[in-house]
Structure formats: C-alpha cells, structure tokens
Amino acid sequence: MGRVVVFAAVSLDGYVGRDDDMPGPLFDWYGNGDVEVTLSDPDRPFRVTGPTAEFLREHVSGTAAMVCGRRLFDLTNGWEGVPPGGEHVVVVTHRPADDWPHLGTAPFSFVPDVRAGIERATELAGDRDVTVTAGDVGGQALRAGLVDRVVLALVPVVLGSGRPYFGTGGPPEIELEDPVVVQGSRVTHLVYDVRR
After folding, report:
1. Which of 26, 33, 72, 193 is the least buried, fewest Cβ under 10 Å from its Cβ?
2. Are 120 and 68 in contact (CB under 8 A)?
3. Could you provide one GO biological process annotation from this protein's UniProt record (predicted)?
4. Is the Cβ–Cβ distance between 34 and 169 less than 8 Å?
5. DSSP secondary-structure letter at 194?
6. CATH topology (fold) of 4-193
7. Domain coordinates of the chain in residue numbers?
8. What is the pLDDT of residue 151?
9. What Å distances lie between residue 52 and 21, 47, 132, 182, CA to CA?
10. Measured between alpha carbons, how far is 153 from 59 in angstroms, rounded to an integer?
C-alpha cells in the first residue's frame, strides 16, 4: 500500500506562496540545473541538479494521485486537465466545477471534504503514493491523522508573509521522525515520516 504524502516547496519562514498566491523564488530550483526530469506530464519538464533529480525520481515518481484544494485548482485552471503529478487529481471543494472545459474528460474528481479526498485518491492510487498539496488541505489531512509523510523542498528565502505550509488550522501537535536530507542547489529536500 502506498503512502499519503504532503509535499511542497516552502520558504524558511514556512510559506508555500506569497499573499497573492504566487510562488516567487520558491520554484526557481525547478530550472537551475542541467538534468531534465518530468513527472507525469512530459510537456512540463524541469531542469534540476543531479541530487534533486535523484530525489524527485525516488520520492515523486511513485505518485499515482494528488489531492488539492479548489483554490489551487482555480489558480492553475486545473492544469488544463493534465495532472501535474500522477494520473489523477482529486479536488476538495464545495463549489461545482460545472463550467470547467475539461470536466468529464480529464482524470479529475471533485469531493466535498479532505477525508473523502484522501479516500478517493487512495482508491485511485492502489499500492502507489498519494500526494496532498500543502496549505489548508494538507494541514487538515495531517491534523486528521491521514498523512504518513511530510516532504519539504526548503528554499533559502524569507517571504515575510503568505500562505502557510500547514494551513491556518490549529492543534493537535504532531511529531515527526528524524528527516532524510538531500542537498540540492538553492533547495534542501527534507523527508519526515509521521511518528505513529
């Protein structure tokens, strides 16, 4: 059985995007190397350093489904119907996407809450991993005990304010195991298993 993994690039002060939702320098490492890597969409290649390429192949290539919130879905226009990682996207939303031009033809599901999103993505993934986007959806999943692993692509920048990695929810306190650390260029990859 696969794992449920919260994964995102994050600033030193804990933000996954600026107040305007844009990543700013958080994504610069996706293009600062000479090794080409694609995840699920061959039309979206990244050019990263060797250590980062190896990290992505090991920790992201086993992903079959992704869970995200409606905010990210709207900001990206649902990636034009092509999942950015894995073969399926599950969107947590209370608003129907009836006017989305890819509805019914793209491998996207829409569910009303985080628990239903994780359940649907896990069903679609089979024995492969599910990623959950950081922010409110990832934070809710972590606090509900639905997450097995937290992966941060820590970027050496302080944004000052923005969208928090773990969302805006409060307790409970959650302990993580010691990290696996992979040093890239302008990014440090940290992999923490959730302590059970």
Report:
1. 193
2. no
3. riboflavin biosynthetic process
4. no
5. B
6. Dihydrofolate Reductase, subunit A (3.40.430)
7. 4-193
8. 97
9. 24, 10, 20, 8
10. 12
Please tell me the distance from the alpha carbon of residue 80 to that of residue 101, in angstroms, as a whole number: 9
pLDDT of res. 171: 64
Handedness of CA 123, 83, 139, 179 (dihedral sign): positive
Strands 4-11, 129-133: parallel, antiparallel or unpaired by DSSP?
parallel
Q: What does the DSSP assignment read for 116-185?
A: HHHHHHHHHHTTSEEEEETTHHHHHHHHTT--SEEEEEEES---SSSEETT-S--PPP--BPPPEEEE-S
Asked if residue 37 lies in contact with residue 57, where contact means CB atoms within 8 angstroms, the answer is yes
- The Cα 16–Cα 166 span in angstroms is 9
* Peptide bond connecting 179 to the previous residue in cis, omega within 30 degrees of 0: no
DSSP label at residue 79: G
